[in-house]
Write a structure and sequence with these properties.
The chain is mostly helical and about 80 residues long. The chain has one domain (about 1-60). Helices cover about 75% and strands about 0% of the residues.
Length: about 80
């Protein structure tokens, strides 16, 4: 029973982090569409953001985490 509770808390935390990263990716996409010349720092930060998201998304899939209302932000 304690194991289920710990897994549920971990899954909730993972889902919250993924949702936050999705929002950041959406903002970044809208900004990059209107920016003529992105700096190298912004390009690197965007790649790091996408890598974090991809890793956490794969971890959530591996853990069979139940998602409520969000999809893969990278493919959108």
């Amino acid at each position: 029973m304690a194991r289920d509770k710990i897994k549920k808390l971990g899954d909730e935390r993972l889902s919250a982090t993924i949702e936050k990263l999705q929002e950041e990716i959406a903002v970044e996409k809208s900004l990059s569409a209107t920016t003529l010349d992105m700096s190298e720092d912004n390009i690197i930060a965007n790649k790091i953001l996408l890598a974090k998201y991809a890793f956490l998304y794969q971890e959530a899939r591996h853990r069979h985490t139940r998602f409520s209302g969000f999809t893969n932000a990278i493919s959108e």
